[in-house]
Design a protein that fits this description.
Length: about 230
Amino acid sequence: MIQEVAKAIQDKLYFFKHKPYRVVTKDGDIKWILDSTVIVRDENHKITNFVGYLTNISALKNSELKLQKLSRTDQLTKVCNRMHIDDVLQNQYYRFYRANETTSIILLDIDFFKNVNDDYGHLVGDSVLIEFAKILLSSIRKGDVLGRWGGEEFLIILPHTNLNQAIKLAKKLQKIIFENNFSTINHKTASFGVSTFERGMSVETLIDSADKALYLSKENGRNCVNTMQTLSK
């Protein structure tokens, strides 16, 4: 706000608006404020005072934030949807090439999930997906990004994580899922493919590498972790 006021004075403006900002009330409530300011000057163009008009736009801003969240959330599992995951991957791609920020991904698929739908019905299948997403979400770091990639496939984006670390996490998740007692179908397993950004790779080749590794896990009997890339020593 101070910077905006200084710029308005420098540009010799008589009226300007601040970007909407948050304030916290004494009761701990969060309010969103739209602040419009008039700079009052005398006949010599010297500033005499400021007049501010504060408008409470909390309802509008909260609706906007809610819509933003809905637009990037998978409605069944409540994790990120495919569109938002694509955006995060693109952002991590730029971070890797501009700042050499290591990023890995884990692509995983629930083994024999079609059998769940066929034997128990789609409502039970949906409940398994919801429970599966909760297990993953509670087992990754706060900075990691979990999304539903499609159907029974999930993708985890791991910033600041090399291939070895990503494989270690994938094996941890494999064990947690294997040992979990699902509320409707008892036990289920998952197959994993792990990949990390390397120079010359695009987002598409990163995903393709993880997808091929996932396919290898399925060929090797499922319930395992694989990568198509060379591990560092």
